[in-house]
Design brief:
The complex is a heterodimer of chains A (217) and B (270). Chain A is mainly alpha-helical and 217 residues long. Chain A has eleven helices and no strands. In chain A, helix 7 crosses helix 9. Chain B is mostly helical and 270 residues long. Chain B has two domains: 153 residues, no CATH class; 70 residues, no CATH class. In chain B, 69% of the residues lie in helices and 0% in strands. Chain B is built from nine helices and no strands. Classes of the chains: A mainly alpha (217), B mainly alpha (270). At the A-B interface, helix 1, helix 2, helix 4, helix 8 and helix 9 of A face helix 4, helix 5, helix 7 and helix 8 of B.
Amino acid sequence: MSTQSLISRYGRLTIFMIPIGIAINFVGGQLALLLKLPVYLDSIGTILVGALCGGIPGALVGLVSNGINSITSPPTLAFGILNVMFGLLAGWLGRRGVFTVLWKTLASAVPFALIGGFLGALITLWVFGGLAVGGGALVVGALMAAGLDVTTANFVAQVPMDFLDKVPTVLAVYVVLRGIPRRIFAKLPLGEVYLRAKGVTPAPVPTASQPTPGGLR
Amino acid sequence: MSALSPEAASAPSGGTFDGVVSHGNWIRDMHPLNVAVVLASISLLALATPRPVGLVSGCVAFLGIAVAAGVGGSFARLYAKLVVGVGLVLFVLRAAFVHGNHVLFELGPLAPTWEGVREGTTFALVVMALCGALTLYFVLVPMKTFMLALELKGMPPQATYILLASFQAITDLGRSARTVMDAQKSRGIETEGNLWVRARAFVPILAPVFITALNQTEERAIALDARAFNSGIPHTHVLQLRPAPAWERAATALTAAACLATIGAGLLWT
């Protein structure tokens, strides 16, 4: 998809949301490290942009985040597909209004964790022979030392770890979405979903011959 | 635009406001895409040459290039961090946990094997060879120069904007997060203590930072619209890339050809 078609389909503001989403991924991870939390929290931006702008912009945030991360840690590149899947799933869930209700948001941690855990374990097995870099690898190593085979150790370690990571991640997305002003929602592709949840009926979408007065969309 | 001098207006780039990007070193002054070709060729050669000699040679070559480019110190510091943080971790995990027949020693549940050490050495060196090329590239070539080179090759400005703005946003948001963290600490929010106490501090720090950043997107959109960013006409640039001289193009092609020929000869030989 070219950038022009991305703009025409998702609106101009989406282009500016992508860098912010990427930065949120990094800062979320840095905050988790600063607060010494045993979770990654490095996909908040991906899910947030997916939930606000749709699957493709969310996937782009994930892809670029992992690409930038790989400059200093090349093994991260192999896990880029996970972040892409998170973005696509967030877009799909966002369109269905999942992030407008707290319990649905919390429940969405399950599919995110299943993707992260199972696909992450498969990538670790295929690309790194079962032992990648990071805290997860230490858990896998400990389980292997305890007698588990490498495949079982990866699944046993990664699925629960990913669930522990995704619950605060989706909770953070929910909190941020609650704090976004209505005028910003009005200019974003999936903003209509959140405006309806707040009891606001959005104005009809203008046609090509009747451009938006603000001009940003 | 009317303030442009006739000389500037007739410059080859047809819309550049400043001089050519130069660092006073011939390696750092190379065209960003030529640097990419040379480093990728060396990496491929290092990966294809019998291990571990080829991989170690590749890592040493990157260090040599960095020294010749006058960035030896900064590259060595960054690379050393990666060797410890990535390479050593990959090596230790494999040495400690990969099963094999030749156990070196036993330490509780750990029984490092000779096979694990060998696999760990090779895997860590492969990753460090790739890591070296990537790290050296971004030490040699500033991101804005790389993006300019891609834009001049036809990459849409919106795509290069996303990448450049991402780097800027990471710096800005990181600074903002630290400020908010200090402010929340001064209001009495605990950021030290047990896991639950630290976890509760996450949302009060994160929410203001991220919501402010999302609000700023609107201002950025207006600022870029005011500068005709989405007008569809060719953009002007503050920087100008030095046109690659013939010797540089020839040296790049020769390096790539020599590396590929060596790899090809090695494959035919085996």
